[in-house]
Structure formats: C-alpha cells, structure tokens
Amino acid sequence: MKTTTAPILECRGIIQRYGRLTAVDDLSLAVPPGICFGLLGPNGAGKTTLIEILEDIIRPTAGEVFYLGKPRTSLFRQQIGIMFQQTALLAFMTVQETLATFHKLFDKAYDLEELIRLCHLDDIRKQLNDKISGGQRQRLLLALALINQPELLFLDEPSTGLDPQARRNLWDIVHQVRSQGKTIILTTHYMDEAQHLCDIVSIMDHGRIIATGSPQQLIARHTRGINITLPPDAAEAITSNAIFQVNRLADRVVLQVTDLNRAIQALLEASVDLTHMSVQSPTLETVFLNLTGRKLRE
Ligand SMILES: Nc1ncnc2c1ncn2[C@@H]1O[C@H](COP(=O)(O)OP(=O)(O)OP(=O)(O)O)[C@@H](O)[C@H]1O
Questions:
Q1: Which residues belong to any copy of the ABC transporter domain (predicted)?
Q2: Ligand 1 centroid to 49 CA: how many Å?
Q3: Cα separation of 130 and 162, whole Å?
Q4: Greatest CA separation found in the chain?
Q5: Would you say 295 and 289 are in contact if contact means Cβ atoms under 8 Å apart?
Q6: Residue ranges of the domains in the chain?
Q7: Ligand 1 centre from 92 Cα, in Å?
C-alpha cells in the first residue's frame, strides 16, 4: 500500500505583488519532512520573496502557508531556523561569545559543544567575528540558525561567494544536519549545489514553479541524456533536428543528443572539427536551459 507523508510545510495559491510586478504568481508547493528541498532559479525568479513568505517574514498578497498541517502561529519563527544571506555580527564579540549569547535565548537549545563540533568552529572559537573568513562566517551563521534545534531549517543561498573548499565544507555540514532527520529548504543559483544537496528540487522562473522532482528525475524528464560540447564557433551549420538539440551559448555550443554514435557520425559527415569536443552527462543547468531557453545566470 502506498503511504504518503504529510508535508512539514505547505503553501497554497501564494501571490506576491509589488505594484504592477507579480514576484510570486499563484504558487503552491508541499515539502515532505526529512528532505533537503531546493528552490533553484535565475536572478529575479522570486526565490527570496517566496522563501521570506514561507519563513513568515513577508505576508503575501494572497495565499496560505501551513506548518505541520496547520496555519502557522506566532511560535513558528521560534520553531524554525533561518540562515540569512546577510546577517550583522557584532565585531567586538568572539565566535564563542556570539554562540553563547544566542544559546541563552532558548529553553531547548542545541548543546553548545556539540554544535561547535558539528559546524567545525572549534579552532576559531576565540576569534573575533570580524576576523574570520567567509567560509567560517557561513559556518557560524549556520550554527546560529541551528541553535534552537529547529526541525525546519531555511538556507538562503548558503554558499554564495565561498571558495570551492569552503563550499564543500559547508555542504558536508548540511549533509550531516539532513542525516539527523531535519528538513532543509534552500535557495540557490548553483546547479551543482542543488544537485549535491537536494533530494527534491523545484525550478522557479517568473514567480512560478516550472518543474519539480529529484535532480535525476528532472534530468531524465527534461534532457536527451547526453551533451556534446564544442567551441562556440564549431558546428555553425548544425541546427536542431531529430539527432541534435542545439544550444548556442556565449562560451560554447551544447548539442543534446540521445544516440551518441549517430550524432558523431552526423557531425563527421558535416565536416565539423571534433578536436575540442567533450561529452558530458546533462546537469540541472541543461534542464533549466531546456525549460526556459536561458542559462541559469545570464
Ligand atoms: N521589496 C520589493 N519591492 C519591489 N520589488 C521587489 C521587492 N522584492 C523583490 N522585488 C522584485 O521581485 C522580483 C523577485 O525578486 P526576488 O528577490 O524574490 O528574486 P530571486 O529569485 O530571489 O532573485 P536573486 O536570486 O537575485 O536573489 C524581482 O523582480 C525583484 O526586483
């Protein structure tokens, strides 16, 4: 028998208007508990607006939000964790003092030493907040978002501006939080971040959700299965047909194909220079390109 899990968070018919602009356009979604749910979309898609509505920071023009099947109460903000894109930290406080100050505010707070270990803050606990690196700051902000032991954690573009190593470090912690059974809702511009962290992804564009599924499901549903990449000036004579779907980007041409042998044969017959050809599996970026005709970051 198929069992369905009740969503931890659900919204129905959300509309957010700013004057004549509709930032969120009649949007509904349901997030099952215990997963990492990603909202992916280009600049201006409406991700931050939607997430701030879900966090109860903005009251929408129309629509309803339910937490654990019920309308949210005034306690909701104390029950969840939010890692904001920008948070001011007091420069004269150390990392440990900052954590201890917030720790005192909650009855059901995370064990401080455990939290410091989880977020890899041990080595910097005596450092002043304005003397820590970008990656260390994000880990501190994540620890602050977790301090009240929330079941639902919001991460708004958590790794923006971090170097690859700091991103990986943050992702490892997010994985651990997810493996503790917490539900995570994150927004990101980065396909690799969504692909790495998220069980379910919704792709948003122009205030609407245009596709939802696991990264693998979205890739299987919305791509041809194989990407051939060539330099931008190669394959000028190739147009979309039964063999190829052609996407010409500023820095490359991507040919999406289902049958690699047939595609390469067709390219050779058309005298296309394959010296700089590479073959990849499609990613969420390919999904986004196919659904919107645009790159994620244009
Ligand atoms: N307070 C506001 N007043 C007026 N317009 C707003 C306001 N907040 C957002 N917008 C507009 O709503 C649209 C959606 O913005 P939003 O920040 O939600 O998008 P986003 O997907 O989060 O983009 P980004 O990835 O750049 O953060 C944009 O056109 C934005 O300019």
A1: 9-231
A2: 6
A3: 16
A4: 72
A5: yes
A6: 9-219, 224-281
A7: 33
CB 272 within 8 A of CB 235: yes
Give the closest residue (by CA) to ligand 1 atom 17.
48
Ligand 1 binding pocket mutation candidate from 40, 48, 157 (most atoms within 8 A of CB): 48
Ligand 1 pocket, residue 18 CB under 6 Å: yes
Only one residue has tokens 């700089």, namely 276
Q: Among 14, 15, 16, 21, which is best to mutate for testing ligand 1, by the most ligand atoms less than 8 A from CB?
A: 21
Q: Is 181 left (phi over 0), alpha (psi -120 to 50) or beta?
A: left
For residue range 69-120, what is the model confidence (pLDDT) as tens digits? Answer: 999 998 998 899 999 877 788 889 999 999 999 999 888 899 999 999 999 9
The best mutation among 47, 186, 210, 294 to test binding of ligand 1, ranked by most ligand atoms within 8 Å of the C-beta, falls on 47
E strands present in 243-282? 245-248, 253-257, 278-280
Q: What is the pLDDT of residue 85?
A: 76
- Report the candidate in 152, 156, 151, 197 with the shortest Cα–Cα distance to residue 174: 197
- Residue 86's region, left for phi above 0, alpha for psi from -120 to 50, else beta, is beta
Written as six digits, the tokens of 159 are 């790794």
Question: N- to C-terminal Cα distance for the chain?
Answer: 46
Distances from the Cα of 37 to the Cαs of 99, 153, 199, 213, in angstroms? 27, 10, 6, 10
- Provide φ and ψ at 137, rounded to 5°: -65, -45
**pLDDT tens digits, 218-263:** 999 999 999 999 998 887 878 888 898 898 888 889 999 999 999 9
In the CATH scheme, what architecture does the domain 9-219 have?
Answer: 3-Layer(aba) Sandwich (3.40)
